[in-house]
Amino acid sequence: QVQLVESGGGLVQPGGSLRLSCAASGRNFSATNMAWYRRAPGKEREFVAISGYLGTTLYNQAVKGRFTISRDNAKNTLYLQMNSLEPEDTAIYYCNVLECWGQGTQVTVSS
Asked: For the chain, which terminal residue's Cβ has fewer other Cβ atoms within 10 angstroms, N or C?
């Protein structure tokens, strides 16, 4: 059974940085794609970034150049480094692996 636990969210001022983590358990994830999604208040959940198991990455255009997705397969952990945060990045951020979802971590960007 896949379990995903996100952490690292919080309140940050515009221009600030946060690093999200997603600890995965239940199996080995080195051969699976792992992704981040987010849901802003009043909006649908949207794709943020994906880390392919072959080393490829893909980003939502809205975060490209500011966010960096990475993974540590030895720790079964997915990361999202978020820099130059904007109020529009305020959302609950979710980890997605094998069609499973974590509980999310809240990111609030506000002065």
From this structure: N
